[in-house]
Amino acid sequence: MSRYLLTRLGQAVFVLWAAYTLAFFLLSALPGDGIMIKFESPELGLSADEIAAIREHYGVHDPVIVQYLRSLLDALRGDFGYSIVNAAPVSERIAAALPQTLQLALWTFPVAVLLAVGIALASTYARAGWLRHLVDSVPSVFSSFPTFWLALILIQIVSFQLALIPMIGASPEQALILPVIALAVPLSAPLAQMLCRGLEDANRLPFVQVATAKGAHRWWLLTRHTAKNAVLPTLTIAGLIFGEILAGSVVIETVFGRNGLGRLINDSVSLQDLPVIQAVVVIAALVFVTVNLLVDLVFPALDPRLRSTIGLRRRRRPVLGSAVSGETS
Questions:
Q1: Interacting residues of 42 by C-beta distance below 8 A, sequence separation 6+
Q2: Between 217 and 168, where is the model more confident?
Q3: CB burial readout 120-159, b (16+ within 10 A) else e
């Protein structure tokens, strides 16, 4: 088990390093210059020598590999430099925007899970055939909704026509409802599809059919047996959902005017604030890797087959080693 954990940790570190490296070189290859966009404005009245000094301070004249190594060592210490837009430390800007995005993600994920579970149960245990076929089509419909379009439709209907949730002057709780719904509905589609398939496959297992023939209630089988078998493949998709939440927050926070990481990266891209973009990419990769690492560690605890395989490899090594030594002697 310890080797399994070390292997997963090593893979997580490699993914973080690869994400940082790719983001750095791709951002360095972008046309344009964020420093020139910010400081060459006539309103600032800076001379050419002052702009050159600013560029020297940010180290843009150094070779790219030197900039990469310097920024990588600084990032390992938690220092992502200073924002080009307002000269504030990047860590402070992220710390100010992160709570809004975390709040959105922590509400969106359980809502998406509840929607997916409801769809899967209705699809699997609906008695009427027409109702089952109708529910089966719901994930495909949900996945086809563009996030920005759904957000605008919710604003138009719920806020403007029904006047249920105000867009201006809403309480913090009210301001979360529409963004969470707009982000959770498309995200629930892949979860629902995996749960439907998992429940369908679990219900076909021989012991389930035998228990059903003996009169076992379907809800008893669901809570005791089939749910656990159906959840295992869904965990992998659930790990990817957090990455989708971070990607969707760019659109949602822009549409609803939330000052989170999504809004920050949208503004930073438009102004070519590369230090902020680099830091947000690293934060997103860290969240994505952490969630998937937790999923990988939970899998052996839920799946006895994987747990026994890991333990079996560890136990067999001394036997193989003694056998080889015996043949050699």
A1: none
A2: 168
A3: bbbbbeeeeeeeeeebbebbeebeeeebeebbeebbeebb
**Residue bearing tokens 């159906």:** 230
CA distances to 15, 107, 200, 274, 290 from 293, in Å: 11, 21, 28, 28, 5
Please name the amino acid found at residue 203.
Answer: N
Write the CA distances from 329 to 282, 317, 318, 320, integer angstroms. Answer: 54, 18, 16, 14
Nearest to 260 by CA among 251, 273, 272: 251
101 close to 253: Cβ distance less than 8 angstroms? yes
Considering only the top CATH level, what class is 98-317?
mainly alpha
Phi and psi torsions of 18, nearest 5°: -65, -40
258 touches 215 (CB < 8 A): no
Q: Residue 80 corresponds to which tokens in the numbers above?
A: 């992502």
Q: Are 31 and 11 in contact (CB under 8 A)?
A: no
Domain ranges of the chain: 2-76, 98-317
- Residues in CB range of 64: below 8 A, 6 or more apart: 25, 28
Q: Dump pLDDT digits (tens) for 50-79.
A: 667 766 766 666 788 888 888 889 888 888
For 139, list phi and psi in degrees, rounded to 5.
Answer: -60, -40
Percent of the chain with pLDDT over 90: 7
Alpha helices, H only, 59-89: 64-76
Q: What share of the chain is helix, strand, coil (3-state, %, to 5)?
A: 80, 0, 20
pTM for this entry: 0.73
Greater model confidence, 24 or 34: 24
Give the pLDDT confidence of 217-242 residue by residue, as tens digits: 777 777 676 777 777 777 777 667 77
Q: How is residue 114 written in tokens?
A: 């509840």
Q: Name residue, tokens 């301070």.
A: 57
Summarize pLDDT for 261-308 with one digit per residue, the tens: 888 888 888 777 888 888 888 888 888 888 888 877 777 666 666 655
